[in-house]
Amino acid sequence: MGGASAQKPPPQKNLTPSKLSVSLRTGGLGRKSDLSEPQGLLITGGAGFIGANLLRAFPRLGPHIRALDDLSSGRVQDVEGLPVKLIVGDIRDRHLVDEAMTGVRQVISLAARTGVVQSVENPVEDMSVNVAGTLNLLEAAVRHGVERFVFASTGGAILGEVEPPFHEDLPPRPLSPYGAGKLAGEGYCSAFWGSYGLKTVPLRFSNVYGPFSYHKGSVIATFCRCLQSGRELIIYGDGEQTRDFLFVEDLCQAILRALEADLPFGRPIQLGTGRETSINALVALMRRLVGESRFPPVRYAPARPGEVRRSLVDIAKARRFLGFEPTTDLAAGLSKTWRWFQENQNPVFFLLSTLQVGVSRSSALWVGGEPGGNIYSRVFLDLLITRGAS
Ligand SMILES: NC(=O)c1ccc[n+]([C@@H]2O[C@H](COP(=O)([O-])OP(=O)(O)OC[C@H]3O[C@@H](n4cnc5c(N)ncnc54)[C@H](O)[C@@H]3O)[C@@H](O)[C@H]2O)c1
Question: Would you please indicate which residues are annotated as catalytic (active-site) residues?
Fold first, then answer.
């Protein structure tokens, strides 16, 4: 690994340090004395699908690791029991982010609105969280002298309709506001390396799947929920569109390496498997896994706007700089994912998570003044945790 150490750091400038009030209002999970921990690591979106897996991938957990999440789609119970600090709040809240970033050496920025379809329906909300929220985090990272900032970006949605395999030098032409927002995030990562010397690492994830994805609108999670409930599987388009499905445990290994690796900062690195699978082939695999007798009907519906036709990632750069080598093939990853869904088939939880996906479009309206909140997360918020945000 290596090859990037010769890169010349840009001239560094500092953002004006803000006055910090160091009191984190995290209910039972936070202790004021932990806040000066110099080796702190902040994971925004830490209660989400990838965040819940990532926390479990760390060799050592402790109060030096903090998860900041507004619980708009993540769940408290997916991180409950882990010896980390959960801060409930919004990445757009400057004061809260300042508190959360105190004593932090590394940031992994996962918090985002993640729905392509939702971004088409509400591009302003998508921009507010994914662009303004990311900028807020980057500014705070500079103020607090953070050493490294790993940013969750995306592959296909940024590039648009291009001939695969995707690689980092292709010109980006996003087809959805979600892709445009992630591209803006990458732009700010480049700019903050260039202007302030913040070591940013934008990682472009392909289609990630795995445990803790009950709430996701991605195709594998959606199909797993259909299999659980016996509802029909809907394939948008002819089913010959392809995706590069990456098992979440493999992704987490790449994220951990990005925290320390010697690499060119501010520039994206694509993560995937280098294999493409059509949705029809995915359904065939799931049919084999679940068994013909339990498999619900499959229906084809019109293709959805903003979705790309083919997705296949060239991971040469990730191999070179992160030593990245995904080890889980799709059949094995699907088997682990399906097992997780079966083991977590709580009827009440299942009903709520289905409801959550259904109401996510209008959640900002429902809870006016509380960006990102929804009924589901507020129930748990009220029950389990005191609010961190002011
Ligand atoms: N899952 C994938 O296939 C995939 C692919 C490409 C990129 N990504 C990126 O990876 C990251 C994590 O995605 P995920 O799949 O775990 O999604 P997720 O929805 O499960 O996780 C996102 C988390 O961010 C939190 N969040 C949302 N808005 C917030 C805000 N304003 N303040 C604080 N927290 C907020 C949510 O509650 C949730 O826990 C996202 O940035 C996403 O865009 C994911």
Answer: 178
